[in-house]
Structures are given as C-alpha cells and as structure tokens.
Design goal:
mainly beta, Jelly Rolls, 7-stranded mixed β-sheet, two-stranded antiparallel ribbon
Amino acid sequence: MLGFIASRLKYENVTARIRGKNFRLMKADTFIKRAIGLMYRDGIPKDGGMLFVLKEPSRQGIWMKNMRFPIDIIWVGGDMLVCDTLSSVKPCRDLDCKVYRPSRTARFVLELKAGSCRRLSIKPGSKVRLESV
C-alpha cells in the first residue's frame, strides 16, 4: 500500500550546496512525504537525494525500513550548519528497525547517496545552502 502511495507522490525539487557541490533534492515537506522518504526506490543519482523540512527544530529520527540501498544522513540546524552525519547507513530488513537521531536538534535532514559525506568531507560544522525552501 505505501509503495503504491509513494509512486503517486509529486515532489518539488530544491538545490542544496554543500562543500562546493550542488545536489538536486526532492523536498519532503508534508507528513506523508516525510514518512515515506526514499522507501521503495531502487536508488538515487550521485547528485540527488531527499530534503526533509521539519516543522520545527527537533532530534528527528530516521529509520531504514523498506529501503533498498544505503544512504548518508545529514542533519542540518537552523543556522544552516551540519550538526550531525551518519555514513552508509544500510537498509533494515527486520521488523524492528533502529531509529537514528542526531546529537542535537536539527531543522532539516538530507539523505544523499552513500559515500557522499566521505567523498566531500561533509562533517559537523559544514555550511549548507538551500535554494527554494
């Protein structure tokens, strides 16, 4: 059922610039878009991903339920600085999936192709610029 819903959702694209690299991201700005995230997809482009716009700063958890590929997770504070990252987080195949949370509150969450943080040296303190948010 969620796979069917996921295939019908329409996303606005936004650009994020991190460490000199532009990423074209799907904007998840509603409850259902944030809940489904990148579930049921077969992959994302090297310069693609998803931007979760949170209603308010929080320690929003991310899980890997129904994911088919690993990703890097980047939490960004209201100051537009990376506050936490996780690299190459693997899909969850169990019923009891781990929930990953940042060490401090964030206003945005970016999900990028696994290896992006390592390749671009994205780490806490890195500046993020978002267009059209």
